[in-house]
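Reading is simple: the token line describes the chain's fold. The lines below illustrate.

. . .
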Amino acid sequence: MAASSSTTVSELIAQVTGSCQGTSPYQKWKSLKVKILGSRRMTKCLEFIFDGTEVSVGREKVTSSFAAADETGMLKITVDDQFFSEIGVRLEENKTYILKNYGVVSVGGGSAQIYLRSSSKIYRSAQIVIADDMTGKAAEVLQPKSPKKTRLEDMGTGGLFTVQGRVTSVSAIRRVDRTDGPIPIRDLELSVEDGSIVPVALWREAALQDVTANTFVSISHCRMTKHASFGSKASSTNYTEIQEVSTPVRKVSITVNGMCVIDNEVLINTIQGGELKTSIDIVKEMAHVVEVEEIYDLLPLKVDVSLEGDNIVEVHK
């Protein structure tokens, strides 16, 4: 019996991930029939233009990603949009195609990713029936999960995460020269839920977004990186999205080890590393004293409070 000229998603993934020598761009793979369950377009800057303190975007490339599946499994397809312009055909959601002359690479998590190139062929075909539970996984293939991490020590456990907090400092954009050209980087510091400070490095396009001090932001799809000179930082990735969010009221335990009174406002330094603000009346309530001067002899003072941003708005008995 003649060998089959086609393969399945599960067979392709097994072949790619099972090879200890990796894959070759010249390797010829069997044709694959898949249904497109979802898609996502991403724009990447290929050239940043630096003019004094100003940075702008130069040449860009648009890439499309597709969640593709058959009855045996799912993988991602990536395509430079220039390819679609050249062949006059574009993959569409909820339609089935036969792919030939594609390339494949192994990706993390024991999966594989197909990329289409100038010699690739696309043929529309009869529909494949896909199970409902597989359809629900398409979004995760295109946009990896990014769970919210609220403590600095939890952010270095691997994988992508979302960090949320008040911006306590914002650096100017700095230029870093790389082999593919200079790129912009901006450094932030966020005061997170437990009062600790998380350093954040925004790379490439993320560095050009408008982020201002004392706003409350959510930065998705970060990855903890370590550098011998700069220590650990939450670094942005290609998937990162930055959004300004409303300031939540949250209950936390803090340990006060220093205060600075300016008129009726009090700046509080905590052992956790954060700086908070409140009123003299709330400070008195913390320590159950009549005069502020009485508090200093009670430090360090552990207390449960409600925070709105970096403002202590309530003391819990």
Remarks:
- Helices lie at 9-17, 81-87, 132-135, 138-142, 280-287.
